[in-house]
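Q: How would the structure tokens look for this protein?
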Amino acid sequence: MNNKMNGVKFSVKKPVKNISKKIITEKKIKKSETAQKIPPAKIKMPKKTNNRVISIVVSIAVTALIAGGGVYMWQKKASLNIIEQKEKEAQNLKYDLEEILNKTKSKLTGAESDNDNLKKINEELKAKAEILNIAKREFYSEEYGFSFFYPAAFGEAVLEIEEGVLGKKIIGKFSNNEKLTFGAITEDYKAATSSKLTFLDTQGFRKRWNSYYFKALGSDTYEINPVKVIEIGGQEAVLVDKNSFTIEGEEIIPVDMGGDVGFIINLENEEFTGIGFLNSDFGVLPLEDFELLIKTIKTN
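A: Here is the predicted structure in token form.
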């Protein structure tokens, strides 16, 4: 509508009634139409599935914890049982070892006691042996005119007479030492059986200048190379071994000495003019002691 005032023209707009209400109403109608047009598939429903999954996961976790705890407790109990069993076995082994040690100690104590007794007996035997070694016995033959002293440990000295086809032979032995013997033959001695000439088949020795000769059967003599010559009571005793009878250029040794050594001594007797002493064991009678025995010989 146009109005004129004082020559000025102006227009006046009519007031709009209830326009805002109309707009609001239209919006509501549009929203309602839009809601009706949305497909059912696109309508969002409440998320109840997530809560259920969480419940299941929690249940599984709790179950796992409970089961794991049970397994752990079972393993722990089994481990404790094994440990207890091993401890018992170790304890039993300890008891067994202690028992063995005690028995061993007992045996050792008994062995030590036995050893002490053996040592004591050994010392007593040594003392007795020393006394016996120091102690001497005398052998004396008035018939054949000689005597000597020897260790009492050798026992009794016995002189045997052996009759030959001709003449006779004497052999001396000791009851406790068969390795020491002495003997002689008469000038006319002839053995019942032929045998090799032995050292005890002697009538003594003959000396010519500085040479020595072994007097054997009859008038047979064999030159000897003495190992040693010692003086006893104003006469000589000749020490010989197997090498003493070796004759240069000959393989046969006339007198059988074996591996032994012997002394030859002359006697002042018409029937037996000499005698020989044969030592077959230096372990029983060392050479030095053998020589000392020979030095005690007396002839008359």
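The first helix runs from residue 19 to 37.

The helical segments are 19-37, 48-134, 287-295.

Upvote if useful.
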